Amino acid sequence: MLSTMQDEQLSLATLLRYAQSFHGDATISTWTGEGVRTITYREMGAEAARLANALRALGIGEGDRVATFMWNNTEHMVVYAAVPAMGAVLHALNIRLFPEQLVYVANHAEDQVVIVDGSLLPMFAKYLPQLRTVRHVLVANGDPAELTAPAGVQVHSYSELLAAQPDTYDYPVLDEYAPSGMCYTSGTTGDPKGVVYSHRSNWLHAMQVISPNSMGFSDQDTVLAIVPLFHANAWGMPYAAMMTGASLLMPDRFLQPSPLLEMMAQVRPTFAAAVPTIWGGVLAALEAHPQDISHLRTCAVGGSALPPSMMRAFQDKYGVKLLHAWGMTETSPLGSIAHPPKGAVGDEEWAYRATQGRFPASVQARIVGDDGSVLPDDGKSVGELEVRGPWIAGSYYSPDGAEVDASKFDDGWLRTGDVGHISPNGYLTLVDRSKDVIKSGGEWISSVDLENAMMGHPAVAEASVIGVPDEKWDERPLVAIVLKEGFTAEAAELQGYLVDKFAKWQLPEHWTFIDEIPKTSVGKFDKKRLRARYADGDLKVVTL
Amino acid sequence: MLSTMQDEQLSLATLLRYAQSFHGDATISTWTGEGVRTITYREMGAEAARLANALRALGIGEGDRVATFMWNNTEHMVVYAAVPAMGAVLHALNIRLFPEQLVYVANHAEDQVVIVDGSLLPMFAKYLPQLRTVRHVLVANGDPAELTAPAGVQVHSYSELLAAQPDTYDYPVLDEYAPSGMCYTSGTTGDPKGVVYSHRSNWLHAMQVISPNSMGFSDQDTVLAIVPLFHANAWGMPYAAMMTGASLLMPDRFLQPSPLLEMMAQVRPTFAAAVPTIWGGVLAALEAHPQDISHLRTCAVGGSALPPSMMRAFQDKYGVKLLHAWGMTETSPLGSIAHPPKGAVGDEEWAYRATQGRFPASVQARIVGDDGSVLPDDGKSVGELEVRGPWIAGSYYSPDGAEVDASKFDDGWLRTGDVGHISPNGYLTLVDRSKDVIKSGGEWISSVDLENAMMGHPAVAEASVIGVPDEKWDERPLVAIVLKEGFTAEAAELQGYLVDKFAKWQLPEHWTFIDEIPKTSVGKFDKKRLRARYADGDLKVVTL
């Protein structure tokens, strides 16, 4: 017996047509430094058609890569809408990649066109001569004359190129497995690796993002997308917003706490998403200049864990619920999200809020031990997290079809490199990245637990913990501390702060005080560089 | 370039495993007449495995049809979980079908097994001898000895059969297009027609049901599923509840207002779904015996339109939001749902609430004129509604592969037989079924509009409008009125009530007063029978 249902393919062109018609009045607002410039989804649809026509006129066809080098703004959303709909592949370049990585990924992806924000031209100009496959550069929000084109590359004004084009486009009907976009991991080891999303994976992921056990978007929302569009699809917010008619507020290059709070005051978004660093800055700015931010019903936090103290401060002082989410480039990125379960209140609620969250039905998850055996979801058994599902990567992109880093895949499951445990009711708690966990005398010490606890100390601005070689125990923790301005603290005092929070053998004896923790291009602690500084004898270590 | 995402197939077995593990504490409660009997999703999972093992032992394999003849209760949910997961096809028989239709659909579907509630055995016993393909009957909640088995049919006790089975089952990995369930239309013309759902269509539909612009399920919800599990998949609630860990409250055979209100008082559900008749009864009971029902955040209403007066009464007096939804067996069934758009308040909000609602991104919709041309979504142009999408039927089931009623499909779109218009922002307003619309002097008169207006009159319990032949105008409306007990009203007075609500040429001049409007098996007005009574001269008509 066969199903009688239609074989309708999930398609981002359908999503674009839906957003521009039935949610034509929803808006995209971009912060200008003083106020917002705004277009409707109806106008986004017309602009996307003009862009698709322009790109086709430049020779872009199905499967060709169109890159962006842009902030979160209106034009970037138009590219998100237009490029996959026309069958091309959107490659949002991470403007914060280290130069050699940026050049590597653009060449590896064979980007044909790059759309660049005017404010980023000085940075982009340094890369352009090394980009081997780029034929056209479109300059948005800026003057193309500021860019010197190498031989074989044409530089266009985005607005002038589009002005001449019709505002409708006959988007092709595609197989739902056709590629729609790509992102590269910002991995701290080896070359960045490419993940190629499909229309199907983007569509299903957007359906998950809008559900109440995830971000719960509806047309009542205005979504402040602080996390960059080049960072794991901005956690899926663009397509989720289009799917529900949620309006968008884009910060452009104004990512400091003060303009973020100014745009919040003016537009009053109902939802926001950003990494912990941003929320830390916003909280500090709020402490200095209190402001009502209760228009935010929920904020998603991902990339790394938010110190519980900060989550509490947002809730208790400002009535804003910050929700941990877990994901990665390879998972589109959701992942799990830390809505507490029904009935959890008080300390129990906060314990759930501190986890990386619960998995949705579409993401299967399991914990695998060192010996490859699947461990029980008992909230205790620690091992590597593996996931599978329709928006999870099954391989890395390879231009020539050769397998890339096959060790990251385990019989249909993605090995995440994250170490933790899963509770019987599906909540993930990460204790570390597999390469960061500290192996001391046959037991594991979580660097993340130590960091979180340490960051609750009033004098500590940042804390990062790495394992350093130890003759007796194999490895022991070293804590790198950045003190808050105007504060002092001794190692012994800081260690004392941990005494009632950890077993005695877990207490770190090695301490170092530094001005700044080195960070990766996406703002995570770069422990590889911290380890290198230690190995080079570049850190002044106090041993208790 | 190829996508690198996993080709993970959407599967109801995955959903079952998810519900029973990560939402293992969520519950299914069934009303017993006095209180509830309750199992957890964890127990549902074990019971489903026992059922799958039992069915396999009876020879049921992939693609075989397992039917139910049951109320909404715990055992029915277990069947919903187990049968598709094991690769068999769930056919929930509509216990209210007319006998010849019931026999027709069970034979047409070639049901191998029927699981029957004890309380329905007397009715089922009459059908069983005519069911040609049934080999096994499982009696749940009752005594199998009460059923005399025809030759070749074995009758089992559901509970005894399952007791002997293991509580785990190794569910097969299926293609997502594999059939999962089937429903037959209760069409008032011709034989019922079968729709075969797939794992893919059920999964995607459940993702839509849980989204905030639809029913918005989460694990915080307890869902009172009044609409039968045999009626268009109970509007998708079973799988949506499993997908989010929402708990379920099942009314079993207690569908009268008084027990419904009693179970609400005891369990305090947050969501409920039923046809207008049920809500009308509940409202009348509430007026007699007021009760706090504000634990209901939202109720979905479908099947036909709810009189706006009733929707207002629920909201103003009881603080409960009733939401129109539109769908049909062929659409899984969602459809559209009437959440008002952002910013709509007061009269504007109520105008939106009175529509059939807005379409989600996954359901494409268009209005097609008499000449086959696509009409604009201008909120005025009236024609037949056509829809397409991944959970919309593309054909009707045919055991021998022959095309069934191909006229219902138009180049990849389903012709719904509903007549209406779509607003620029995607709200559907139905004016009639295409066969019920009254064509008077080249203009269309909506029978539904007249019915809705008439049912706002204090003396009117029910009103149904049909077109009757007219020499001059082709057709003119005849209004059949059922008066409320203890009320009287003359035709002229009732017509007067419509004067300021309709154009003069739309005012009906033919009236008849009857004791009851004939209804279909799912409780809709059966206008075919009303027309037959008129044609037979069986109605006493007053013409003004």
From TrEMBL, chains A, B:
Domain of life of the organism encoding this protein: Bacteria
An example molecular function term from Gene Ontology annotations: ligase activity
SUPFAM superfamilies: Acetyl-CoA synthetase-like (SSF56801)
InterPro entries in alphabetical order: AMP-bd_C, AMP-bd_C_sf, AMP-binding_CS, AMP-dep_synth/lig_dom, ANL_N_sf, ATP-dep_AMP-bd_enzyme
Xref: Pfam families: AMP-binding, AMP-binding_C
Residues covered by the AMP-dependent synthetase/ligase domain: 23-397
Keyword vocabulary terms for this entry: Ligase
Classification via PANTHER family: LONG-CHAIN-FATTY-ACID--COA LIGASE, MEDIUM-CHAIN-FATTY-ACID--COA LIGASE
Name listed for the protein in its UniProt record: Long-chain fatty acid--CoA ligase
Native source species: Nocardia jiangxiensis
Organism phylogeny: Bacteria, Bacillati, Actinomycetota, Actinomycetes, Mycobacteriales
